[in-house]
Automatic annotation (TrEMBL):
It comes from the Eukaryota. Keywords: ATP-binding, Cytoplasm, Cytoskeleton, Dynein, Microtubule, Motor protein, Nucleotide-binding, Transport. This is Dynein light intermediate chain. The keyword Nucleotide-binding applies. Residues 410-419 have a biased composition (Polar residues). Residues 172-198, 409-467 are annotated as: Disordered. Homodimer. The cytoplasmic dynein 1 complex consists of two catalytic heavy chains (HCs) and a number of non-catalytic subunits presented by intermediate chains (ICs). Its main location: cytoplasm.
Length: 467
């Protein structure tokens, strides 16, 4: 009899160990799932590519277009396992919104975390951009043929996650008010979470997706303070509006700066915590204005109202762009001045009037000065008529300059040639012209003797080649 009892005890002991080993094998330390992914949305130039590169540990990000794909290597040292977290980055151009169907589908809906990205370099448009991309995301989800029960279960999961949030460090203290409230808050008579009992303004737009709002380039706050006279009041006004938005969608909030490496590593740890369940021990950070971190489930309207104390010249419900005003920038347009050339005949006619007006006042030749330089050219006519020579060779010079403006067109066709201006010219007249001009210039050079009346007819023709 004692042997049978001992045998039965040994069998039950073996069965117990077998059950424990089976439970550990089936439920203990499961491998990291490879189906998880992150979808990054935001306007162009808001830092989407840079923040993804920071999560990857890449120093030189390469920007693409359309719908970009990347991945982040995730390793769990506790489980001694690793996997790849897929990352989809959608271009900010509205024309690429249709590409969302390749990143977020019925199959990937329950495995997707969404990051909404805005930038501090354009603070006046932060709220509009968040509302725009949340609307794009909601419209896309409505087009998906997601099972109704699945989408409802995802919404309940978001509510439960919000209600069961425990401040890091309070999970070990059974008397913690945060832990005590998280156990009893929102539970109905059947012990299930009641979404209608959520705090004011919480999860009013529950999409069934984990959402993280990331404000990039917060180092630009210093520039806003110096160049645009931003004060703490403006920053608190922006923050309370952003936190209200996050409260509506159940989203976490990060202020990051890739330039100063603020909150980038913390964002990676938080993502792996939300997606894979890794431990996360960092509480909310609201002291540093450029490194704010608010986990999902921590915030409420009472905490947001603390920011109201710093709003002296504005009200919390004021229109966002009325307080955060976009500066007016004047664009300098360099236009080349168009120069219109004056008509040639108008120019010559104007010069003729100037010469006639001042010709009578021109002084005579000074001592030792060549009479050619002091000749009053204004006495020459430009109509081709005969010019009577005057003392000092004025007639010959007048004929010379007059011939440059008016070419003689009538001559005998016998011995003629075409000059540069296209008109015929007699060879005999050319020879006489050269002789007459040479003789006159020679007389002027010998002492300025007064020449006799010119025997040449008016309108002597000269070409540039004849000189």
């Amino acid at each position: 009899m004692p042997e049978e009892v001992s045998k039965t005890a040994d069998d039950s002991k073996k069965n117990l160990w077998s059950q424990i080993l089976s439970d550990v094998q089936n439920n203990g330390n499961p491998k990291l799932p490879s189906c998880k992914q992150v979808l990054v949305l935001g306007d162009n130039e808001c830092g989407k590519t840079t923040i993804v590169a920071k999560l990857q540990g890449v120093e030189d990000p390469k920007k693409g277009s359309g719908l970009e794909y990347a991945y982040i290597d995730v390793r769990d040292d506790y489980r001694d396992d690793q996997t790849r977290l897929s990352v989809w980055v959608l271009d900010g151009d509205p024309g690429h919104n249709d590409l969302l169907k390749f990143a977020l589908s019925e199959e990937t809906f329950q495995h997707t975390l969404v990051i909404l990205t805005v930038t501090m370099t354009a603070p006046w448009s932060i709220l509009e951009q968040l509302q725009h991309w949340a609307s794009v995301l909601a419209d896309h989800l409505d087009k998906l043929k997601v099972d109704v029960d699945l989408r409802q279960s995802r919404r309940q999961h978001i509510v439960k996650m919000w209600q069961e949030y425990i401040e890091p460090g309070d999970e070990l203290d059974p008397a913690s008010p945060m832990k005590r409230s998280s156990r009893t808050f929102g539970e109905g008579e059947d012990g299930l979470e009641d979404a209608t009992s959520l705090p004011e303004g919480t999860l009013t737009n529950n999409l069934g997706l984990d959402i993280v709002v990331v404000v990039t380039k917060t180092d630009y706050i210093q520039t806003l303070e110096k160049e645009q006279d931003y004060r703490d009041e403006h920053l608190d006004f922006m923050q309370q509006w952003i936190r209200k938005f996050c409260l509506q969608y159940g989203a976490a909030l990060f202020y990051t700066s890739a330039k100063e490496d603020k909150n980038c590593d913390l964002l990676y740890k938080y993502l792996t915590h939300r997606i894979y369940g890794f431990p996360f021990r960092t509480p909310a950070l609201v002291v540093e204005k450029d490194a704010v971190f608010i986990p999902s489930g921590w915030d409420n309207m009472n905490k947001i109202r603390i920011l109201y104390e710093n709003l002296h010249t504005c009200k919390p419900d004021d229109y966002f762009r009325d307080i955060i005003v976009q500066p007016t920038t004047r664009k300098t347009i360099n236009r080349e001045t168009e120069l219109l050339a004056e008509d040639e005949q108008n120019f010559l006619g104007r010069q003729q009037q100037i010469l006639f007006a001042g010709g009578n006042n021109l002084p005579g030749p000074r001592l030792g000065e060549s009479p050619i330089r002091s000749t009053p050219l204004g006495k020459a006519t430009l109509d081709g008529s005969k010019v009577v020579s005057s003392p000092g060779g004025e007639g010959v010079l007048a004929n010379f300059f007059n011939s440059l403006l008016h070419k003689k067109t009538g001559s005998s066709p016998g011995n003629s040639l075409v000059n540069k201006s296209g008109g015929p010219e007699s060879l005999n007249e050319k020879a006489a012209m050269r002789s007459d001009a040479a003789a006159e210039l020679d007389r002027l050079a010998r002492g300025g003797k007064k020449p006799g009346p010119s025997s040449g007819s008016g309108g002597i023709d000269f070409n540039a080649s004849d000189c």
